Amino acid sequence: MAEDGRGELVGFLVGFISPDHPDRASIHLVATSPNHRRRGLGRRLYQQFFDDVSSRGVRWVTAVTWPGNRVSVAFHRAMGFTVDDGPGTQRLYGTPAYPDYEANGDDRVVFNREL
Ligand SMILES: CC(C)(COP(=O)(O)OP(=O)(O)OC[C@H]1O[C@@H](n2cnc3c(N)ncnc32)[C@H](O)[C@@H]1OP(=O)(O)O)[C@@H](O)C(=O)NCCC(=O)NCCS
User: For the chain, how big is the Rg over CA atoms in Å?
Assistant: First the structure.
C-alpha cells in the first residue's frame, strides 16, 4: 500500500508467490489514485514488490490485464514486462492476448518479467 503525506491511501498492489512454483510470483491487481497518477507511484509499488519477492527466491513475475486497458499495457511494458505472444494469443486492441482467458469474453494480456 502507498500513502500520501496525510496518511491517505493513494495506491495498492495485490500479489502473491505461487505456492506450487515458489520461484514465481503473480501480480493480481494494482491501482493508484486518479489524482496521483503519472508520478511514479505505480513504479514504486512494483519495485517494492520485486524487492520483496526476490529476497524470498522469486525469479519470475507474471501480471495480466485486459487488452483494451492501454494505460495498463503501457505501464507494464515500462515496468520491464514482455507480452506473452505464444500459441493461442490473438492481436486484440493491438496487443497479443489470450481470448477468454479468465472466462468467456474475459480476454487477457499476459506479461512476464525476469527479476
Ligand atoms: C496502471 C496504473 C497503476 C499506473 O500507475 P501510475 O502511478 O500512474 O504509474 P507511474 O507514474 O509509476 O508510471 C510508470 C510508467 O508507466 C507508463 N505509464 C503510466 N501511465 C501511463 C499512461 N497514462 N500512458 C502511457 N504510459 C503510462 C509510463 O512509462 C510511466 O513512466 P513515465 O511517467 O516516466 O513516462 C494506474 O494508471 C491505475 O491505477 N490505473 C487504473 C487501474 C488499472 O488499470 N490497473 C492495472 C490493471 S489491474
Answer: 15
Is the CB of 30 within 6 Å of ligand 1? yes
For the purposes of burial, counting CB atoms within 10 Å of the CB of 114, is it exposed (0-12), middle (13-18) or buried (19 or more)? exposed
Ligand 1 centre from 20 Cα, in Å? Answer: 30
Measured from the CB, is residue 12 less than 6 Å from ligand 1? no
Does the CB atom of residue 14 touch ligand 1 within 6 A?
no
Rounded-to-integer distance, Cα 90 and Cα 31, Å: 26
The Å distance, Cα 17 to ligand 1 centre, comes to 23
- Regarding pTM above 0.90, the answer is yes
pLDDT, one tens digit per residue, over 13-39 is: 999 999 999 999 999 999 999 999 999
Query: Across residues 75-89, what is the average pLDDT?
Result: 98
When divided into structural domains, the chain yields a total of 1
Kindly report the CATH number assigned to the domain that includes residue 69: 3.40.630.30
Residue 20, domain extent: 2-114
